[in-house]
């Protein structure tokens, strides 16, 4: 490994959890270089932009970036960064962990969120003081690319099929095209997906999350439904994510800057450390990724806990405990 | 009372739960006339349209309509019917009931869903085999009308404030205008709303639904988040709704046609009977509305239960028990 990992702590607890994840990666001794860049509210104040050109350029040049969180400027930071890695899918595993209080302890899902289109295409207009429009964009190409990824992903997680979530009964053309393209690819690949309307999914996942496994969805649906799943597993402090492109990846916790606890050194680093595990997997360090995940799980079950999980440990305590429990095969 | 209530059972269990609710209304002996009309999949098959002109005309002429559910044709039935009553708000109470198994037994929320715009404006285009667009529409007028209703509604439920849910960080112009208009009206009326992003709301309502009370949201957000709340209270079988216009109302359970149990006489009629209670309130029969609600609650707590709630009672058993427990002041 002579990779350079770009790290962007961002705002709030990003400044605490990203260094924690870097500690974990360094402890693996894989020879990574870390190059730190700035983004977020604090940069916007100083420099008039939340995403300086050199930060974007660094992400465009690196194979892997670890991002923390941004505050008010989040959309202006994370959306351009996702496109800087040409990310077409946001992979969001949502699982409950033994020992962590969860509304639905049997939750174990992965959302594959389309990462470029829908309302995120950014085509919004204020036509007058009275009227605004926003255009959702759906292309067959983006839908197919996501579906191809989903079909390949099934093998990794040893699953036969996935569930397509959409609202094609109301958005007949956009979600209709999405649905059609996903089914076309699946059929070619010999996969038979289920489908559930977005609203029905929200009810059903609360009633019984074991009905679902891999969930393929448009951009906004993925945003909202993965956050719903975070609620079912006990909070955003546990959800990692990977924004994957054909050559580069951007890894980030699903949570935000948590301004209420920022600066106190008690943020839960688990989501960011699990994001670092996804980064390791992306770079081909599968055994190390498993070791990190195993250590996080072990600490969640029986190790020190940060206050969000009812404990009184610090970020450093948890990170230290995770490093101690590595068990690389 | 010499009102004519239009009833549209529709498809599937609509054919069972609407008659059950009519039985309840008849038992109150208020002198209502009931005029039954057809809509849904079975009509589409016979007549080529799921919503015959006479059904729409009847809804346009009546002060109150009770609707059941429609199957595949749901969007082509319910969206035109909502506009037939010029409904600008869909009121969706979501509460857990003592005695009913719920993921979050402390849930007690009301969604006030914008009922005309957003992606429901229907402005979708398939530009080519490869590309589709859908236009979300937001007007200040519709947003203000909803906000005015919300401010007045607070007094009814003895609450000081409401929560505005939106995704203005991504949909800056459309949800931005919605947010702005709602805050402007609230400020004029001396109300100080909270605001939460749509994704964060999904997490937070699972973790602690008591944080929220009255929730004001755009159309699709209201659709998905109220279904999420249905999941938290133990299923769609319990959620009523009222589509309110300036002069007319359309009342319907939030659930669908439940094809798996349709025709067996075991559908849970509670959501539709609670919708009939909202209809009574709309027509000014407040004491009767309270009596119906009280009877439904009492039966949910200690009466016969349909299979969805773990019992083996029929729709008729439950309806009969509700009628027996009326206690009109
Ligand atoms: C900050 C925001 C633009 C972002 C999104 O909506 O994608 C966030 O909610 C997320 O899910 O990563
Ligand atoms: C059937 C569908 C068009 C409808 C909606 O999306 O509004 C339904 O889901 C509802 O919530 O009443």
TrEMBL record, chains A, B:
What PANTHER family does its record include?
A: DECARBOXYLATING DEHYDROGENASES-ISOCITRATE, ISOPROPYLMALATE, TARTRATE, ISOCITRATE DEHYDROGENASE [NAD] SUBUNIT ALPHA, MITOCHONDRIAL
Q: Which family does it belong to?
A: Belongs to the isocitrate and isopropylmalate dehydrogenases family.
Q: SMART domains, from UniProt?
A: Iso_dh
- Name the InterPro entries for this protein: IsoPropMal-DH-like_dom (IPR024084)
Give the organism's phylogenetic lineage: Archaea, Methanobacteriati, Methanobacteriota, Stenosarchaea group, Halobacteria
**Name of the protein described by the UniProt record:** Isocitrate/isopropylmalate dehydrogenase family protein
Keywords, A to Z, come to:
Oxidoreductase
Quote any Pfam family the record assigns.
Iso_dh
